[in-house]
Amino acid sequence: MKVKQIMTIKLLLPLVIIAGFTASCSKKSSSKNSSKATGWKINDKKGGFQYASNFKKQETGPGLVLVEGGTFTMGKVQDDPMHDWNNTPTQQHVQSFYMDETEVTNLMYMEYLDWLKRVFPPEEENYKNIYEGASPDTLVWRNRLGYNETMTENYLRHPAYAEYPVVGVNWIQAAEFSKWRTDRVNESVLEREGFLKKDAKVVETKADATFSTNTYLAAPTKTFGGDDKIVLKGRRNSKAKPTTDGKGGSKEAKNVYAQRTSGLILPEYRLPTEAEWEYAAAADVGQREYNTYKGQKKYPWSGSYTRSKKRQIKGDQLANFKQGKGDYGGIAGWSDDGADITNKVKSYPPNDFGLYDMAGNVAEWVADVYRPIIDDEANDFNYFRGNVYMKDKIGEDGKVELVTTETQKFDTLSNGRVMARNFVGQIAQVPVDDKETYLRQNFDKSDEKNYRDGDKQSSRYFDFGAGSEEGTKLKDNQRMYDSPVHNVSTDSIGNMIRKYDKSNKRSTLVNDDVRVYKGGSWRDRAYWLDPAQRRYFPQDMATDYIGFRCAMSRVGPKADKKKRPRN
């Protein structure tokens, strides 16, 4: 009997171990979907807390490449003959972000114009300024003593220039394109994931029924003009199974709309900050050994020369730029940079981040308001001057207020161009107030462009001992930056009145409406190809040598792969 019992125990023991292992795995499996705070089940079909527990990493948006963040010396140039403060070296750190692989092309911008023209027909009185306000200024190609009418008439629209960088776009237009691109990309993502009706973005979009990312997140039932046949309740795709209540009827879906917690909505496309652009252009990662840089690059590529050392293309220029007076592209039959004006994107090798044309082709707008110095004492992390904090406008009913045809705003720029400030269907924005700023240490008002440089306290006329009231403005000749003040207004019958500041006593062109642009262009000498060089231009004016590319913030980890010390 004892032998039989021992044999039985030996036979049962493996089964007990297997059963225990299975139970253990079952517990681990169930605990993965259980809250560590309450023990409740997450994503229960019956309801409760829903969360994207299967989220892995941020999706890379169309046209973007990942730029892993890090530290670098901003503003350090190889050549500084002016010896001014404009390029004072400062140690900065930028977070990881995404950036357009190439500059925004004519083809990309034409898609934007086509959408505006279809959705907001220019022939209708309410929308006549939208398309025209977004259109590039093709007259930037004209020159008093040069024949450039071919570019004036063809550069934007002719297919021969489709993959060339768009020019004639001012800073405001570039920023508005970025906002539009955000909505179109997220609209496509939600359609793909079954939250929006298929093809509605093409066949059913109209002026009073469009998609806005912020509107969808804050008030999804108001998106597309409140059409619930387009904005679907729950995912509707081939993989989704219909939910029933067990009695033959359909069951109401839980968390019927995508939210931030879904992990599907991409952050906004935007203009890169100056720090981001310079970091991405310099691409010092190619000079890295362990945790240090082996010197500073002069250009986005390695070496101190503009010509290639590679055997296949030895002697060719690595960017298109003005090589000397009257020399924009070399000698016929040799043409060592392959272009005389701009060139097709990706015509030259990328830098170590995989970004093309970070020198040459066109210079590029960045987000920052220009100031002569970078204030690294105030901040050395994600540096940016130009913050204007806004919030959603809440109506009397306690809900977000959407822009309508009657409330849509248009701005008249200093050069007389009229541009739409917002579109119908978007959430109206207002500056943050003391509800957000009271007793805060990190910001104290909506508009922080002038913090520590340009505000009243920064002026030499400010009397620290006087008890002047908050909001009191300095006299026109006491402003820190005494720049020209041009003004455009309309009279009682709608005629435009332009008032040009003819004063010859102005001391600078710097004000709150000038933006930084970076990189050398087809019009520039090699001096400007250094990523640390910086210049400024009025935000409402355009040229034939400034374009732009978009960026997007990275959410989550700094890098996709874990790094080893040697790597």
Record the SSE blueprint.
Blueprint: H1 2-32, E1 64-67, E2 70-74, E3 90-94, E4 97-100, H2 106-119, H3 128-134, H4 149-154, H5 171-192, H6 200-203, H7 213-218, H8 274-282, E5 288-289, E6 292-293, E7 363-369, E8 390-392, E9 410-412, E10 418-420, E11 429-431, H9 434-437, E12 487-490, E13 496-499, E14 514-518, E15 534-538, E16 546-547, E17 551-553
Notes on the structure:
The protein is of the alpha+beta class. It has helices at about 1-30, 105-120, 130-135, 150-155, 170-190, 200-205, 215-220, 275-280, 435, and strands at about 65, 70-75, 90-95, 95-100, 290, 290-295, 365-370, 390, 410, 420, 430, 485-490, 495-500, 515-520, 535-540, 545, 550-555. The strands form seven sheets. The protein has a four-stranded mixed sheet with strand order 15-14-7-16. It has a three-stranded antiparallel sheet with strand order 1-4-17, with no helix packed on it. A two-stranded antiparallel ribbon has the order 2-3. The longest helix has about 30 residues, at about 1-30. It is globular, with a radius of gyration of 29 Å. About 30% of the residues are buried. The model is unreliable at about 20-30 (pLDDT under 50).
What's the gist of this structure?
With 567 residues, the chain is α+β, with helices and mostly antiparallel strands.
> What is the residue-averaged pLDDT?
88
| Oligomeric form | single chain
Order of strands across the main sheet: 15-14-7-16
Helix content: 10-25%
Q: pLDDT below 50 for ≥5 consecutive residues: which ranges?
A: 21-29
End-to-end distance, in Å?
Answer: 66 Å
For the sheet with most strands, the description reads: 4 strands, mixed
Pattern of helices and strands:
HEEEEHHHHHHHEEEEEEEHEEEEEE
For the secondary structure, the number of strands is: 17
Structural class: alpha+beta
Tally of separate helices: 9
The rough form would be described as: globular
Strand content: 5-15%
Structural Rg: 29 Å
